[in-house]
Please model this.
Amino acid sequence: MALKIAFVIIFAFQISSAQVILNEVMFDPEGSEFYDEFVEIYNLNSFSVDLSGWQVGDSAEQDLLTDAGNGLILQPQQYGIILDAGYFENSTSYDSLIPPNALILTIDDASFGSNGFLNGEPEFVLLINSTGDTVQTYQYSVGNTPGHSDEKIILSEDNSAQNWGNSIYLNGTPGFKNSISPKDIDLAIAEFRFVDNNFIVGQNLDFEAVIKNNGQQTINGFQFQKFYDLNLNQRPDPAEIIETSSYSNSLSAGDSLLIEDQFTDIPAGNVAFGIAIVVQNDEDLSNNIMTKTVFVNDPVGIKIIINEIMADPRPGNEEWVELFNMGSTDINLRDIYFADAVDTAQVSKADLILQPRKYMVISGDSAAAIQYNISWDDLIIAKGFPTLNNSFDDLKLLNNFNFVYDRVGYTDEWYGREIESGTSLEKINPNLNGQIPENWTASVDMTGSTPGRVNSVFAEILPSESQLQIQPNPFSPDGDGFEDVTIIQLDIPVETAYVNIRIYDTRGRRIRFLTDSVPAAHESHFVWDGKDDDGRIARIGAYICLVEALNSSKGVIRQLKSTIILVKQ
Model:
């Protein structure tokens, strides 16, 4: 009877000691290969285990566990960190990581097993109890990033390769829960998505968030926060939180909850929208916050124009259109569409910012970069770029709500002269109305065009000092690209009016009826290219510009005149 009782006691000890498990192996440390290897064990038992006489090592050699100053008793649910004997005098890699409640141990040899653990091929790690029984065996996998240990996933299960993996953290998790083990309490944001891509200032932005219980315990309630990440630190600082909501939903392990909500009256520019969840005792805070940064358009504030058109390229060359940001704020070209009379193409499928006073060229083929010496930074290849008509077309820049930012309905008469293929149509000044033919003309650049740079026919608009300002004056319409046109700037004390502009020679003969009851704003600009009503360049000399501002019933409310000098260089 006594023998049977003794056998039962020994058998029970072996079963209980087997619940001391291998839990983590650092075989390829980032620090010293000689001193920074470690093995972590864990006591799954509900009682203490005396580790006196226990050994750890590889299949070739095992080393005796020895006291590192805290004894050899491993308490229930306690981690034991077995450090190389040389660690204490030669390294501090884990001093700040190992918590005080872990049991630090060492070995009676200069290295683990036979000359330390190998990095290039897998080895078996053995844990042997005081009676010489091997209670744990694990063959680690090689190829880890240096400093990332092998960790066990489910502590109560076996040591198969499927139940181990690489640590997420540098230097592993000595003395605390493995980074790849399921947490008891771990509520996570699994997904954060916008319902649509209409990012317009002042609108409401609908979104959906999926909240998932990644932990092992049921979660009964949490808080949900919406915030703008103004300082881009990817966390909701108190001043950034716009709303906190409480949810009482009960989520079992693996359950998910779909939240449908919105950001209201959203601001313009690059906006970092953020959501966060708060739950008591959450063990993994890395998945509690998610942000998405998008560009929110201000349609009223967007001032993007068509500034140059290559509709009739040389044979074999590509068509293109040049865009220009006239405003003072960034424009996300992903939200801009380019259309002609037949087709529409999204300028950019991805976020692409056009900064103020910058140019961008869109084309249907990357060959345009070589053909026209366009910088790759200034060229966009737009899928579905429309085929432009040589003699006429109706071009528009718009958003996906069909809000039109600019429109140019050109014809071949807008060039102002006979052109050769490969000559672009250039706007005289970006600030001029693009729908008026006189504000466009053929490029006079020696290459035939100026994609990505100031137009060759550019004419400056000077600040107005009087109600009628004409600059440059004199001007020389000789086709050399320098002062080929003059700009008539009109400043009238009404918000809207109709304008007649006539050009007379010094004998009082009208040579050009420039505008006929054209609607004009408080400040308007008109261009004279030096031609008469028959399309011929006027003679050298002085001319009188007569401007009449009319009210809605076409009655004259203001009459202005000034002299224009036409010269030839």
User: Anything to note?
Assistant: The radius of gyration is 39 Å. The chain has four domains: 2-166, 187-296, 299-458, 462-569.
